[in-house]
Automatic annotation (TrEMBL):
Record key words, sorted: Oxidoreductase, PQQ biosynthesis
Family: Belongs to the PqqC family.
InterPro entries listed in its UniProt record: Haem_Oase-like_multi-hlx, PqqC, PqqC-like, Thiaminase-2/PQQC
Biological pathway: Cofactor biosynthesis; pyrroloquinoline quinone biosynthesis
Source organism per UniProt: Puniceibacterium sediminis
Domain Thiaminase-2/PQQC: 10-220
Class of enzymatic activity (EC top level): oxidoreductase
UniProt-recorded name of the protein: Pyrroloquinoline-quinone synthase
Record EC number: 1.3.3.11
Catalytic activity: 6-(2-amino-2-carboxyethyl)-7,8-dioxo-1,2,3,4,7,8-hexahydroquinoline-2,4-dicarboxylate + 3 O2 = pyrroloquinoline quinone + 2 H2O2 + 2 H2O + H(+)
HAMAP family in the record: PQQ_syn_PqqC
């Protein structure tokens, strides 16, 4: 039975309440100041692969959109990450974070050392958006509904617990607090409008679940490789690689 607009939105929000990656143990370690400098660096390296793939995901989506109005609205997502003449862009802000934690930005930008599971998860998301229906592609982006709180928690936790954290190094998260609301407001309204049958609502909900799996699996890979017990797979980043400077990542107790 087709749900009302209000009930369907509540269903989508419940997916985030149950499955969003803010509940992952790695984020609790990171935000609580309990990650080692190398664990922070591993997170920055692997999360970069996701950041640099987002504009490709959005370009794949736009290549299938025939409605000029939808393409025009969606284009700002690419600009937010790639930058413009007046906007540095999220990718460059993330590389500034990489430098702040002591990594060489060229090494991070090369995506060398990214965990295999990170690549599989992120590449699967890009393929999903490229191959699935437009409704499923947009619905998968609705993890942005739940992102503002994790960004706020991250900014507060990093500022409190790590020496590298300041307005410059954390500018990616600060900017997402301004950028994400416009994206999610449009995306949510579009999904609620388009999902006008039970079949479409079920497909959209499954798409959002898929995206939460993508985010969660990246943290599972990080935790398995760099936390306890550390099992770094062949070809993945080793703590002695890609360092630019010796950096104090954790605040002295």
């Amino acid at each position: 039975m087709t749900q009302s607009r209000e009930d369907f939105e509540a269903r989508l929000r419940q997916i985030g309440a149950e499955r969003y990656h803010d509940k992952h143990p790695f984020h609790h370690l990171l935000h609580g100041g309990n990650c080692t400098p190398d664990q922070v660096r591993a997170w920055v390296i692997n999360r970069y692969y996701y950041q640099h793939s987002i504009p490709m995901k959005d370009a794949a989506f736009m290549s299938r959109v025939e409605d000029p109005k939808l393409r025009k609205i969606w284009r700002s997502r690419i600009e937010d990450h790639d930058g413009t003449d007046t906007n540095e862009g999220g990718i460059q802000r993330w590389l500034r974070l990489a430098e702040a934690v002591g990594l060489d930005r060229d090494y991070v930008a090369s995506t060398k050392g990214v965990l295999p599971a990170t690549k599989f998860a992120v590449d699967a998301y890009v393929r999903y958006v490229r191959d699935k229906s437009l409704l499923e592609a947009v619905a998968a982006s609705l993890t942005e509904l739940f992102a503002p709180q994790i960004h706020k928690d991250r900014i507060a936790g990093l500022l409190q617990n790590y020496d590298f954290a300041d307005d410059s190094s954390l500018s990616y998260f600060q900017n997402r607090l301004k950028e994400a609301p416009k994206d999610v407001a449009f995306g949510l309204a579009w999904v609620l409008d388009q999902a006008d049958t039970q079949e479409k609502q079920d497909a959209a909900a499954k798409a959002l679940e898929f995206k939460t799996d993508v985010l969660w699996s990246q943290l599972d890979a990080l935790y398995s490789a760099y936390v306890a017990p550390a099992r770094i797979p062949p070809g993945a980043w080793q703590p002695h690689e890609g360092l630019a400077v010796a950096a104090k990542t954790a605040k002295a107790s």
